[in-house]
């Protein structure tokens, strides 16, 4: 296929019902991504995990463009949007269109999971770290999962232990699947303190903090994950996030936003695969006519267009509800995550199928031409797993149907 695929979301989807600040932001972010991410997307998506290849230059470029200020209030140095969660999710969709790994590593984890969590930290530390985060000076990480506990974050399951000592706490335990841990400057850690769970802010240069080599994953290569071990690590008292015992609630609040973000990332990947395949189908001929004239593929991609629209509408609605501060967001956040992650896998799979060898291949050796669908398919699968597996999202939705008093 030759040329850049047409953005079909421009004709199949309309931002007409969204705030003017959101539509303007989408265009600003899209222009940035076209200029700064399209040229390096293949490298981002196909370079195996390597600390030395982490995209620091992209971090600086995004920071200089003000993208890291989008989620935060003007009082903290942010853009001060009326609908900051919605703006952040639109940012994620546009970045994930080119690289889901970059969206996860540079936006979802540091800005949503880490960034939202530290808004509950003590004022001097909070203000200093938010400033550094928005300027691209630091990268943050968020650690809840453990070797024996990921979906289950109950006090009985968490084995990372905090104990009180003079001046603060001592932290011991191991966390697993922690995004950005090989490059992070600070990390928010969920640990068991007596019978409850608390959140702690950890300076990664502290004595006793050990980070393993990056995991080798199926996809999302530039999203580096690794084990993190805390061996009697001292945490100053003012690095407690929120109050003692409030850790699970704070962590789940951030994860709820993160789930909407995963939905937005899924929409971005689905749209990218959809656009590429639709363009290919119009150019590629078989038996004397373009593939786009075959009714089977017409029907299949009509369904996918509808599914992408539904998933986009869900993440937008969930983000707006979060921005309005309503408490009844659990079910729709789960729906947004479920729909967005699922449509990414479904569209990428069918895009590869209709493109045949040009979908399955990463590079044609004879020409040196590179093709994107293989990477999108690899990257899409994790969306159905992390930040709460989709089976858990269905359970949360079911509870809202059958046990509304427990929501």
Brief synopsis:
With 407 residues, the protein is α+β, with helices and mostly antiparallel strands. The chain has 13 helices and ten strands.
List the helices and strands and how they pair.
Blueprint: H1 9-12, H2 20-36, H3 41-46, H4 56-64, H5 84-96, H6 100-118, H7 123-134, E1 140-143, E2 161-165, E3 168-179, E4 186-193, E5 196-203, E6 209-211, E7 225-236, E8 240-241, H8 247-283, E9 285-286, E10 289-290, H9 295-323, H10 330-355, H11 357-360, H12 373-380, H13 390-402
Parallel strand pairs: 1-4, 2-4
Antiparallel strand pairs: 2-3, 3-7, 4-5, 5-8, 6-7, 9-10
Report on the structure:
The chain has helices at 9-12, 20-36, 41-46, 56-64, 84-96, 100-118, 123-134, 247-283, 295-323, 330-355, 357-360, 373-380, 390-402; strands at 140-143, 161-165, 168-179, 186-193, 196-203, 209-211, 225-236, 240-241, 285-286, 289-290. With 407 residues, the chain is an alpha+beta fold. The strands form two sheets. Strands 1, 2, 3, 4, 5, 6, 7 and 8 form an eight-stranded mixed sheet that branches. It has a two-stranded antiparallel ribbon with strand order 9-10.
Quote the distance from N terminus to C terminus.
49 Å
Following the backbone from N to C, one meets helices and strands in this order, namely HHHHHHHEEEEEEEEHEEHHHHH
- Biggest sheet architecture: 8 strands, mixed
Specify the structural class.
alpha+beta
The chain-level mean pLDDT equals 96
As a percent range, the share of helical residues equals: 40-55%
**What is the alpha-carbon Rg in Å?**
21 Å
DSSP strand count:
10
Shape: globular
């Amino acid at each position: 296929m030759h040329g850049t695929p047409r953005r079909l979301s421009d004709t199949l989807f309309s931002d007409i019902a969204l705030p003017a600040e959101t539509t303007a932001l989408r265009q600003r972010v899209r222009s940035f991504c076209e200029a700064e991410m399209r040229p390096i997307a293949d490298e981002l998506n196909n370079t195996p995990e390597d600390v030395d290849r982490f995209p620091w230059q992209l971090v600086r470029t995004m920071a200089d463009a003000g993208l890291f200020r989008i989620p935060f209030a003007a009082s903290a140095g942010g853009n001060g949007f009326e609908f900051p969660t919605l703006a952040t999710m639109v940012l994620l969709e546009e970045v994930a269109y080119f690289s889901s790994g970059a969206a996860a590593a540079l936006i979802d984890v540091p800005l949503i999971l880490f960034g939202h969590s530290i808004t509950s930290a003590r004022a001097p530390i909070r203000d200093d770290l938010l400033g550094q985060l928005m300027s691209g000076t630091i990268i943050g990480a968020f650690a809840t999962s453990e070797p024996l506990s990921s979906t289950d974050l109950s006090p009985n399951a968490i084995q990372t232990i905090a104990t009180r000592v003079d001046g603060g706490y001592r932290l011991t335990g191991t966390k697993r699947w922690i995004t950005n841990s090989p490059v992070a400057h600070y990390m928010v850690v969920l640990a068991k303190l007596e019978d409850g769970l608390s959140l702690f802010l950890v300076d990664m240069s502290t004595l006793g903090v050990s980070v393993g080599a990056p995991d080798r994953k199926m996809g999302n290569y530039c999203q580096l994950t690794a084990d993190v071990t805390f061996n009697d690590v001292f945490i100053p008292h003012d690095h407690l996030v929120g109050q003692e015992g409030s850790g699970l609630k704070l962590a789940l609040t951030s994860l709820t936003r993160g789930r909407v973000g995963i939905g937005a990332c899924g929409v971005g990947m689905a749209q990218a695969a959809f656009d590429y395949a639709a363009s290919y189908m119009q150019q590629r001929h078989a038996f004397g006519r373009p593939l786009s004239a075959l009714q089977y593929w017409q029907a299949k991609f009509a369904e996918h267009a509808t599914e992408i629209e539904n998933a986009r509408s869900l993440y937008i609605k969930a983000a707006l509800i979060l921005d309005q501060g309503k408490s009844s967001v659990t079910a729709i956040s789960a729906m947004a995550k479920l729909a967005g992650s699922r449509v990414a896998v479904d569209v990428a799979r069918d895009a590869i199928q209709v493109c045949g060898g040009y979908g399955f291949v990463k590079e044609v050796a004879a020409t040196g031409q590179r093709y994107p669908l293989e990477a999108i398919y690899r990257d899409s699968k994790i969306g159905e797993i992390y930040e709460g597996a989709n089976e858990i999202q269905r359970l949360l939705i079911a509870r809202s149907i059958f046990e509304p008093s427990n929501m």
